[in-house]
Amino acid sequence: MKGTSAGRFGASRAKDADGGGRRFPAGGILIPFFSRSGRTRMVAGVIHELTGGSLCEIRGEKSYPSDYYETTAVARREKETGARPPVSGALPDLSGIGTVFLGYPNWWYDMPMVVYSFVEALDFSGRTVAPFCTSAGSGLSATVETITRMIPGATVLEGLALTDREVNGASVAVTEWLSRLGFARRD
Ligand SMILES: Cc1cc2nc3c(=O)[nH]c(=O)nc-3n(C[C@H](O)[C@H](O)[C@H](O)COP(=O)(O)O)c2cc1C
Q1: CA angle, 102 as apex, 113 and 124 as ends, to 5°?
Q2: Can you tell me whether residue 156 is helix, strand or coil?
Q3: Which atom of ligand 1 is nearest to the CA of 167?
Q4: Which atom of ligand 1 has the smallest separation from the CA of 110?
Q5: d(CA 76, CA 78)
Q6: Is 37 in the pocket of ligand 1 (CB under 6 A)?
Q7: What are the residues whose beta carbons fall under 8 Å from the beta carbon of 133, sequence distance 6 or more?
Q8: Is residue 138 in contact with ligand 1, taking CB distance under 6 Å?
Q9: How far is the CA of 26 from the centre of ligand 1 (A)?
Q10: Nearest atom, ligand 1, residue 36 CA
Q11: β-strand 128-135 against 155-156: which pairing, if any?
Q12: Coil, strand, or helix at residue 91?
């Protein structure tokens, strides 16, 4: 996990578009993400730059094949069997964390199964979770609804979806998304 630093954005009580206030929980920011080929990692880096917080890469104990199509076959089998691949290494401590930016690539219109393992292993109650996703074009699919179902004690916010082509200029989209979520610029 990388160290916490002050980003240009911070949790605020900015008004939502509908005029209601959103109260972010007190506490730190954690940015856990899974990324096989680096795109979600890049978006996580942008979020980290803008918000501070701690990056936390989710890795499975078994790595996926380097071949893309072999990986899609393995991932498809994992999804069809409802696999829960074990997460490698220690899980993060959520005790001081109020806001979680959870990142993953879209795999077969869903989250990679190792992200399910990660989410199920932790207690997100009382925390605010903002999902972000990269994909070839499927966007978030139904992952925000899935996450909301998995962690009923948390507040799950609007997700951010970027296509592979959009990842390289992600900071504009991420900045707009953070503003929509109610994160205020510090400068
Ligand atoms: C196993 C697997 C399944 C995928 N399934 C989808 C999909 O259903 N829809 C889609 O738009 N992209 C799909 N993709 C493409 C990835 O979501 C996309 O390339 C993503 O940006 C990769 O993120 P990463 O570089 O962080 O691993 C899939 C890729 C892999 C490896």
Answers
A1: 90
A2: strand
A3: 21
A4: 8
A5: 5
A6: yes
A7: 40, 103, 104, 105, 106, 139, 140, 143, 159, 160, 161, 162
A8: yes
A9: 33
A10: 27
A11: parallel
A12: coil
**Paired strand residues for 156:** 129
Instruction: Domain ranges for the chain, please list them.
Output: 9-185
Asked if residue 70 has its Cβ within 6 Å of ligand 1, the reply is no
- Summary mean pLDDT of the chain: 91
Return the CATH number of the domain spanning residue range 9-185.
Answer: 3.40.50.360
**Closest ligand 1 atom to Cα of 43:** 26
34 Cα to the center of ligand 1, angstroms: 11
85-141 residue pLDDT tens: 999 999 999 999 999 999 999 999 999 999 999 999 999 999 999 999 999 999 999
Question: Quick one: pLDDT band at residue 175, thresholds 50, 70, 90?
Answer: very high
Centre of ligand 1 from the C-alpha of residue 123, in Å? 27
Length of the chain: 187
**pTM score:** 0.93
